[in-house]
Amino acid sequence: MKEKNSVSYHTYTPENQQGINRDKIIDFLYHHLDEFGDKREDIAKCMDYALSSAEGKGGAVLEARENNEVVGALILNNTGMSGYIPENILVYVAVHGSQRGKGVGKKLVQLATETVSGSIALHVEPHNPARHLYEKMGFTNKYLEYRLHR
């Protein structure tokens, strides 16, 4: 899908992985998630889960490209649950600094919502400026999250 601003968007699912360059997307997310990111191997595991056709797994990987370079990426995982836990979790989304404020992140999130069925959850740090985008798009904050790390 081609956009006016010369950014093209691509969606990859377990059924459609044609044209994906996993390493480029993983490297992009690793470098552009900034302080909100994870280790490269964790991003790779998340992508493997999203693109797995195994029962209970799956999801989607979306990328935005300009001049054949990744300028935005998103990974969404299916939870395999429904009702008491949302069916999907938006795990990673990042946009290149040169594209921020131009609608690339919003478009990636919109496409992700159109790709899957069911509710979508996401975790966002309180000081992350993307919080405002999610709120404008209809995401709500119902819970505080607590974790016990071992």
What's a quick, concise take on this entry?
This protein is of the alpha+beta class. It has helices at residues 22-32, 40-50, 104-115, 130-136, and strands at 7-12, 59-66, 69-78, 88-95, 120-122. α1 (22-32) crosses α2 (40-50).
Can you characterise this structure?
The chain has 150 residues and is of the alpha+beta class. It has a single domain (7-136), classed as Gcn5-related N-acetyltransferase (GNAT) (Aminopeptidase). Helices cover 27% and strands 23% of the residues. The protein contains 4 helices and 5 strands. It has helices at 22-32, 40-50, 104-115, 130-136, and strands at 7-12, 59-66, 69-78, 88-95, 120-122. It has a 5-stranded mixed β-sheet with strand order 1-2-3-4-5, sandwiched between helices. Helix 1 packs across helix 2 (40-50). The protein is globular. It starts with 6 loop residues before the first strand and ends in a 14-residue tail after the last helix. The relative contact order is 0.16. It comes from Pontibacter burrus.
Portion of residues in helices?
Answer: 25-40%
How do the helices and strands follow one another from N- to C-terminus? EHHEEEHEH
Give the CATH topology: Aminopeptidase
In what range is the share of β-strand residues? 15-25%
Number of strands: 5
User: What spatial form do the alpha-carbon principal axes imply?
Assistant: globular
Average of pLDDT: 89
Q: Tell me the count of domains.
A: 1
Label the structural class: alpha+beta
Give me the CATH superfamily.
Gcn5-related N-acetyltransferase (GNAT)
Low-confidence stretches: none
Number of helices: 4
CATH class value: Alpha Beta
Just name the CATH architecture: 3-Layer(aba) Sandwich
Largest sheet: 5 strands, mixed
First-last Cα distance: 44 Å
What is the CA-atom radius of gyration, in angstroms? 15 Å
